[in-house]
Design goal:
Blueprint (H helix, E strand, L loop, with lengths): L2 H18 L4 H17 L4 H9 L2 H24 L1 H12 L5 H16 L2 H19 L3 H18 L4 H10 L3 H29 L7 H10 L8 H11 L4 H18 L5 H10 L9 H4 L8 H19 L7 H11 L1 H16 L2 H12 L7 H12 L2 H4 L7 H10 L10 H17 L6
Helix pairs in contact: 1-2, 2-16, 3-16, 4-13, 4-14, 4-16, 5-7, 6-7, 6-8, 6-10, 7-8, 7-22, 8-10, 9-19, 9-20, 10-20, 10-23, 12-13, 16-22, 17-18, 18-19, 19-20
Length: 439
């Protein structure tokens, strides 16, 4: 089966999923089947293809374990009262015309502190999106502000695994990367503040009927105990505790609060962890219902399929031989334009940040000048392109999983202003940061 034909069918399948609203996971699964058959046609043995497909799965299993805990956590945060507590007091204290603006800032600060986009989306993001629904704010706008905020820290926080990976594959010093990334983000960050201030003014959080507020107080005991699961999730990563353990501790605490403060049975708590939380009818059902391991089932399928897919592409060497063409192209139009293009295409093909960043480095490293300055330029280019474009590709894990956590669709992406503001602004401001030919 021809490679070009396989990519064409993959593209059509992805477009069909996006147009029909079906999960893009099915297109990734179709790609796995297509390229597996392509490998057989190329005379690769069955055992060799299985080995290729498995090569990237160990990293996927790590993500899957986190997703399972994450699904349970989002349900338990609802049942224990953490999200209801934040909704109740958020409505009371956040100024109506500042909600979207505050949402963006909160996620920027937490992502800088925690260094994890997924961890922030699944905690403060879930709380704020629930608050938006409760207060009548368009949840897609809120989700876009969350997406912008979580990826600000994902590329610049010293604790970010993504930032550390880019430094490792480019051979640069992390804090040198951060300095240049911060400098390149100043203009788009300022523009984002204006963008979300305007959206806040146009979409104020509504005055909620006191009947709704009373329903929260009736359904839950909104004591300080309900805040502890959220506090654990914020404090432990600051103490360098792994995300996996931080989420597990927060989930265990939420389960205990559900039983001993909200007076639920153990069986009910276990059901909520698996299937999510749903109030028994009433006006709270629309804004509190959700979470559970089953809610992220398709995300698990996508992570697994994406791991197998990238393993097949790498194992069969499908992208080999591109470097010379990219070097010639960069001499004509400039490194940054080519790097931005590669940073956009890689997440489209590989469906995740990690592989996209690695392949981006491999394809482009020979095009940059030798020495520390060239490596630093490459690192900055990757962080300002691949890392951010991945958050805007609907079938990329970096986009689909946070949106699944927020229970928002791809309609949120136009509001993720910072994610496309940085790559676009970087095209025009890079010459002020780096000096050289063919930037």
């Amino acid at each position: 089966m021809d490679i070009a034909f396989s990519f064409a069918v993959y593209a059509v399948s992805m477009a069909a999923c996006l147009l029909t609203g079906a999960s893009t996971s099915w297109a990734i699964v179709a790609a796995v089947v297509l390229f597996f058959l392509c490998g057989l046609r190329r005379k690769y043995g069955l055992q060799a293809l299985l080995k290729m497909g498995y090569s990237n799965l160990p990293a996927s299993f790590t993500v899957i374990r986190i997703l399972v805990i994450l699904g349970a956590l989002t349900g338990l945060w609802r049942s224990c009262g953490t999200i209801p507590f934040c909704i109740y007091y958020g409505i009371r204290f956040i100024r109506p015309g500042m909600f979207i603006f505050v949402t963006f800032l909160i996620n920027v600060l937490l992502s800088l502190a925690l260094g994890t986009s997924l961890g922030v989306a699944s905690t403060s993001g879930v709380v704020l999106i629930s608050l938006a629904r409760f207060g009548g704010v368009d949840p897609l706008i809120c989700a876009g502000a969350v997406m912008s905020g979580i990826y600000f820290g994902d590329r610049t926080a010293p604790t970010s695994s993504c930032a550390n990976l880019v430094a490792a594959i480019t051979g640069t010093k992390l804090y040198d990367d951060i300095k240049y990334m911060t400098r390149s983000a100043l203009l788009p960050y300022g523009a984002s503040l204006v963008f979300y201030a305007v959206l806040s003014w146009l979409n104020p959080i509504g005055t909620v009927d006191e009947t709704m507020m009373n329903a929260l107080c009736t359904e839950f005991q909104l004591s300080f105990w309900t805040v502890i699961p959220a506090a654990i999730m914020i404090v432990l990563p600051l103490l360098r505790c792994p995300l996996f353990l931080s989420m597990g501790a927060s989930g265990l605490c939420a389960a205990l609060v559900s039983m001993f403060v909200q007076h639920m049975s153990l069986s009910d708590v276990l059901k909520i962890a698996v299937f999510g939380y749903a109030p028994e009818g009433g006006m709270l059902a629309q804004v509190i219902t959700g979470g559970g391991i089953t809610s992220i089932g398709m995300s698990i399928v996508m992570v697994t399929a994406a791991g197998i897919f990238t393993g097949l592409l790498q194992g069969m060497g499908i992208l080999n031989g591109i470097q010379a063409r990219l070097k010639s192209l960069s001499q004509r139009i400039g490194r940054i334009k080519v790097s931005n293009l590669i940073g956009l295409v890689c997440p489209m093909i590989f469906c995740n940040q990690t592989t996209s960043n690695i392949v981006h480095s491999q394809l482009m490293k020979e095009i940059y000048p030798n020495g520390p300055e060239g490596r630093l330029e490459l690192a900055c280019d990757i962080n300002n392109t691949s890392v951010l474009w991945a958050g805007l590709i609907p079938w990329s894990v970096a986009c689909s999983i946070p949106l699944d956590c927020l229970e928002a669709g791809i309609g949120a992406l136009p509001y993720a202003f910072l994610l496309y503001a940085i790559p676009v602004c970087y095209l025009f401001t890079k010459k002020r940061i780096f000096k050289g030919e063919h930037l």
